[in-house]
Amino acid sequence: MPELPEVETVVRELHSDILGEEIRSVNVSYAAAFRGESTFIVGKEIKRVFRRCKYIVFDFGNNCGILTHLRMTGKYVFNLSEKDEKHAHVALRLSSGKTLHYVDIRKFGGLEVTASLKTRLEEMGCEPLTETFNPQFLSAAIKNSKRTIKAILLDQAIVCGIGNIYADESLFFAGVHPQTEARKLTAKQVQALVLGIKDILARSINNMGTTLSDYRTTKNVGGENQNYLRVYGQDGLPCATCGEKVQKIKLGGRGTHFCRVCQPIA
DNA sequence: CTGGATTCCTGCTTGC
DNA sequence: TGCAAGCAGGAATCCA
């Protein structure tokens, strides 16, 4: 499932592939995957491609653009494989003759045309790899919160880009139990968590992301970061630090992995 | 304010 | 082998 490092990896590839291209035509074969007026973007030039949160942004300038979210199984490809054909929902024909296809098995993700790009981007949560995301920021955000720390990490309106995998990994790094009430975290734990989030996300970007099943870059290659996961998907296996069996519980509807020795409940 | 259930959706895994 | 149920989950939404 694409989280910040996976989206970042895709964006870096896409940027060199479609920068300066003009949209010649739009073909939507699954209506829910495309929000907004498709004719509005025909003739527009892609001036910039970047990531914000877990969104890929095609920037046309003048506050206009496309926000696209891959959710669980979305991906962009130039060449449709036989398998992909069935799940290709949007086709953007570009001025160079290439066609960029949005493919999504589970149909959760899609594209959205917006004429108020700036506002939309501003409304999103703090970017975890910037200076703004620091221990002061996080402690202020959780000061009075009775929510679990895992729910906070997954809340895109607070800090964005962290999904289920990196939330579990970051909590393991910091030695914090996912069910800990956010306001009960010590200053030391907050600091460790911020450090862990930055560290783990940055390393995953260097590894081109985590590929567990569906995630592939535009060039259809997977990442390598799945080889470095410490707790996510490791349930039943010994913890790399202490040897205790990694636990898996359900928290807020999500599978949650942790080591009960390294991450004691407060 | 909080967590939990539900919804969207398909494909893989599990159990009989 | 076959088939149905269960499970996976990002985010919005509704409910208690």
H and E order? HEEEEEEHEEEHHHHHEE
Unreliable segments of 5+ consecutive residues: none
Give the strand order of the largest sheet, numbering strands 1, 2, ... along the chain. 2-9-5-4-3
Q: Which bin fits the share of residues in helices?
A: 25-40%
What is the average per-residue confidence, as pLDDT, rounded to a whole number? 91
Distance between the termini: 30 Å
What characterizes the major β-sheet? 5 strands, mixed
Q: What is the percentage of strand-forming residues?
A: 15-25%
| Oligomeric state, counting identical vs distinct chains | single chain
Radius of gyration: 19 Å
Helix/strand structural class: alpha+beta
**Tally of DSSP helical segments:** 7
Globular, elongated, flat, extended or rod-shaped: what is the shape?
A: globular
Query: How many DSSP-defined strands?
Result: 11
